[in-house]
Amino acid sequence: MSTTDDHLRFFPYEEPYPNQREAMDRVGNALARGQDVLLEGAPGTGKTLSALVPALAHAREHDRTVVITTNVHQQMRQFVEDARAINETEPIRASVFKGKSSMCHIDVDYQECQTLRDTTRSLVEDQNDKQQLERRLDDLTDEMRDGGSGGGGGGDGSAAEARQAVADELESLESNIEGATNVCEHYLNNLTADTDEFFSWLFRDVRRPDEVYEYAERQGLCGYELLKEGMEDVELVVCNYHHLLDPQIREQFFRWLDREPEDVITVFDEAHNVESAARDHASEALTENTLESALSELEETDDSRAEPAENVLRAFTDALRATCEDGLGFGERERVGENWYDLSVANEDRRDDLTLAFLERYEGRGIRAECDLALQLGKRLDEEYEDAYRDGETTSRRECQLLPAASFVSAWMDGGGELGQHPMVSVRRDAGTDEVYGRAELYTCIPREVTAALFDEVYASVLMSATLRPFDVTQDVLGLNSPATLAYGLEYPEENRRTYSVSTPALFASERDEPDTQETVASTLSDVIRFTPGNSLLFFPSYSEAERYHELLSGDPELGTLLLDGSDPDTEELRKRLVESDDAALFTSLWGTLAEGVSFDGDAARTVAVVGVPYPHLSERMEAVQDAYDRAFAERSRDAGWEYAVEIPTVRKTRQALGRVIRSPDDFGVRLLLDKRYTNADMGKYSVRGTFPPEEREELIDIRPDKLKFAMMNFYSDHDAYSGSPPEP
């Protein structure tokens, strides 16, 4: 019997997709060796089950736990459906986990929840102790009574003394119980009620977090804490990226699992996003408001460490303000809105402007020594706030601002000049006061500083996506050690798809405003929409470009319903409007939420077009990443920064967008790349065709804009897709 035959008892459907059996076999063999896996599979070809089925089989055989994670909400819902299907075939114990904030019944923050949990547990322990003392008191009373009936028993009065001691202790305990405050009733019920029925319900199926919340709410329980308690014996956990990518959360998460890291198999879906997600989790920031709150805390304490702590934080606060003022040019302050607006502070030949301003203003007795004293004081104040809340002296748990402020300043001085740690300063406008305030940030450029430790400590990891290649780049950036690599292209019938690279003008930023360029692109898009028998998806480099062409085409009544996405509209509502239509075109950004993790099956969308090469905005952050990659991977490539940080991620985004259509063997459609840089034309270093995988390059058919409508008409006519006669060319 092959490895796959053994795995198939977990496979929930009648027959695997083509090559899915082989993929499961190869993943299973890699896991047997404790080897990580990079798995690329075209959209709709069953990547999730290719990874999950052998991982579950391995975990059951070797007493390990599988953790599958994503940063896409729709994909998490799909995980639940797949897990439910597996559970019907081969019963498994599974748990779907979300953060506390989305499951709290009384809407308190994380720290206050922790304190409420501790005070509630203390109350229950006191109640249990009270019951034991009451039984002991009864026993001693009986002992005294029995001794007394024997004619002055009790001897030296030891029983009476013991009884009085127990009575005093009981009185003190009853006083504590009566005065108990800041208790979570939901968690109290967890500790005092019979929760067997909850866990029986939980593991009869694979429950979504909202189902757990609703069930627990009806029973007056805390579903979040019960989920944590029930994770010890699970075989599969579904969760968000941050449960694994944040080192502190990961440590707690593994404790809840009651697993050592080497007994955990991690499966990352949409793994091309791990790079940016890890970068976000590793970056640290401190706002001017937090600094102000920390300084106010110091004014309230008479601790001798307050003075050195103020020396550091006052100088850093003043330096941050001055740096923000100096960084805002004439008229720039007025343009600052409610989103963070980056200011340039880094220097090539010396420390950043904020550090220089800090050193100029600091007049203490040593930054390192005074940062350490500030940290010590912060920890003490945090403990005091905890005790005050636990003892009922305050009605809410006060957050210590000194502790994070001192920690950040210490990290800033230690790490601000290191490779991969880029100092940043940003400003934003407070919506309430209309005042502009600043933020200092240590931006992490190299994500392997976070991910390499994770992949080293767990048993093995499977990273899957439709766009992981080039594998060597993924391996370098994430710090993987010699992973197994598997790649499966779109195996559906080739006659069901066409992929055209259209020689419209190259949409360089400097040429997008040219009237001739806009006229050619708009005319081509008009043909795309008219000759698509159904809905079209149109992806642009930005929302502003999507809006531009939406406006240019909105006056044509032959184009049906034209939907415009943006940074504010309800994306899910737009998706529904498109799916429910039969002649709509959706204009959106390739960097928006509809470009990946969302399926448009069958009639939901027949044509998808990517307009231009959607390079990300080349901000200082992007330039910092490029510079860090240039230095970190210089041996790999002469231009590693551009390739690793810009070109390859951009082509991955493009490939993700193309994958929104043709999601099953019977599906058919046209995929379009509108920009001369996608064609075989000699564009020198600007050509991106060579960045696509070989088999995808082979499918690209170069075509002139004026010929595209005929090609589309012929393709869709061959599939009898038009309800009547095709449109007139």
Question: What does the model show?
Answer:
- This protein is 49% helix and 13% strand.
- It is α/β, with parallel strands linked by helices and 729 residues long.
- The strands form three sheets. The chain has a seven-stranded parallel β-sheet with strand order 3-4-2-5-10-1-11, with helices on both faces. A seven-stranded parallel β-sheet has the order 14-15-13-16-17-12-18, with helices on both faces.
- The longest helix has 40 residues, at 110-149.
- Mean pLDDT is 90; it is low at 149-155.
Multimeric state = single chain
Number of helices: 27
Shape: globular
**Major β-sheet strand ordering:** 3-4-2-5-10-1-11
How big a fraction of the residues is strand? 5-15%
Q: Determine the fraction of residues in helical runs and give it as a percent range.
A: 40-55%
Number of strands: 18
The secondary structure category is alpha/beta
Query: What's the main sheet like?
Result: 7 strands, parallel
Could you tell me the radius of gyration in angstroms?
31 Å
Uncertain parts: 149-155
Mean pLDDT: 90
Separation, N- and C-terminal Cα atoms: 58 Å
